[in-house]
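We treat protein structure as text, and this decision shapes the records that our systems exchange. We quote a single record here, exactly as it is kept in our systems:
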Amino acid sequence: MEIAVIVVAVVIVVMCFVAVLTKRGGDDRLVKYSYVAKTQIMTNAEKMFYDKLLLTLGNDHYIVPQAHLSMFINHKIKGQNWKAAFSIINGKSVDYLIVEKTSQRPVLAIELDDYTHDRAERKRRDKIVEEILKKAEIPLQRYQNYNQFIQHPLFTLPDTTSQES
């Protein structure tokens, strides 16, 4: 009888252990999803825009495509809830971020506004991004038409020489 109780107890412990691993996801959590490399990271129009940016900016700046806000916006400001602040910027990006090579300072964000920016949900997201960039004092330039940029001279970058690192 005692052996039966011990066996049942061991079985229950093992089942609990398996349940905990399964609840956490265990190692098999990774194998149930498939991943494939994208064939390209930018659309053809975005690539044309990028190439024009390269020609225009020369060697003084880096161009970061699809730059996530959390990459260049500091949300850890004393006196605010860091998790809440991060949740606002998490998952949001700009099409291009122009970064000064020597200082590594972000100097300009660029958004290409195609037809998807006409949707109500996207307009709300765009307003949030604009407000965040304004608070962070990073200028934002928008282009409604890829050809608007491709066929005309580029913007002038903000003067960053007066800013200290």
